[in-house]
Amino acid sequence: MTNPTAAILVIGDEILSGRTREANAYHLAGRLVQVGIDLVEIRVVPDDHRAIVDGLHALSAAVDHVFTSGGIGPTHDDITADAVAAAFDVAIDVREDARAMVAAAVGDRRLTDDHLRMARIPEGATLIANGISGVPGFSIGNVHVMAGVPSIFVAMLDAVLPSLGSGEPVVSREVRFEVGEGRIATPLRRLAAQHPRLSLGSYPFADGRVFGTNIVVRGTDPAAIDAAVAQLEELRGSLG
Amino acid sequence: MTNPTAAILVIGDEILSGRTREANAYHLAGRLVQVGIDLVEIRVVPDDHRAIVDGLHALSAAVDHVFTSGGIGPTHDDITADAVAAAFDVAIDVREDARAMVAAAVGDRRLTDDHLRMARIPEGATLIANGISGVPGFSIGNVHVMAGVPSIFVAMLDAVLPSLGSGEPVVSREVRFEVGEGRIATPLRRLAAQHPRLSLGSYPFADGRVFGTNIVVRGTDPAAIDAAVAQLEELRGSLG
């Protein structure tokens, strides 16, 4: 496939400690499929400067677009913006347009030094607006730095996605088998070889006492997908 | 902290394509907190040999225990065992004890070459039994290779966890503020400095139209946690 690639770096002790179930990578995955950008890695790291910088270096070199989630608020554990500046080796300071957005969100009279931390933007970045909190994220190089609060992450993604190049949307269809993977592995292997441009994923499930298998056919060519699904349905019929 | 560290490598196109919401890393995170092992990275990669090998190399060098999830079934897209063997540079073949377990699970008369793929175990590995499917995972070096089906992953983790060294269980308590992070960032920063052995996480939330903040105090010393929580409750009271 020649679609653009993406990765997400989720910054959050709350995910790694089991307190919170990750939601933003899941949302991002669903959105990127629709626009034909291939998500090739999800990485969750702690609120730790070194871990964030290392993750940014690795992912921004490996894929076309890196999204980050979390760590851009006003408190002592919000260290993402500084880590991004360090990763790109640029200065970071309060920027006037970001300050105006934060002031509008918080109210000028209540604005504290902590609030102003949210207006600290690495040099050369472009702001990402959002209509939920009003406090901006930012893009620098191929990295898009977004909030961890899911409703704000969603709004920032809506703002940034149209500006990214997109590829061919990936379509998927699913055929459910009420037998274990082992019963259909051989014909499935043959089918996968017949359709080199499609991805055939085999996902076993345990549904009460029944072991079954969902076969997911993915690709960018609807006619080829339909043909593979027809073959799978024929296979399912032949199992009786 | 001197607790042992862990990471999980989730192998699965189905997560990256947005089809499935990841569940095993979330379960693992909750379990590791209880036994005092610090989960320091979650990484999700595709069903791709190179991506799995690279992930294994990076994570097994960085942490004490690596768990993998997914890709150990009988179908063409189940390539985890081979990637693990390649990462450790050891041979892989059908092993008699694993073959017996697979045969017991599937039924000897129905056993196919595809089923036998599940009995291919890298040289030097130890099997991980599970009472759900009967098909084993395995441990090699500091890597524990487990199934992607959540009920089987849970059973394998139950089997392997008691054999790992554990640390001091991490306890957490939460104080909810009905104000945004900016209002409490300054006292919170002071409190975090007063309790260097505790982790104070600040998690903003948007609950309908209310922006609030959950402060999570984490650590291994219950008395210190109680003291910090009392200070947070006093702070909350002072906000009126």
Automatic annotation (TrEMBL), chains A, B:
Residues 7-167 form the MoaB/Mog domain. This is Molybdenum cofactor biosynthesis protein. It comes from Agrococcus baldri. The lineage of its organism: Bacteria, Bacillati, Actinomycetota, Actinomycetes, Micrococcales.
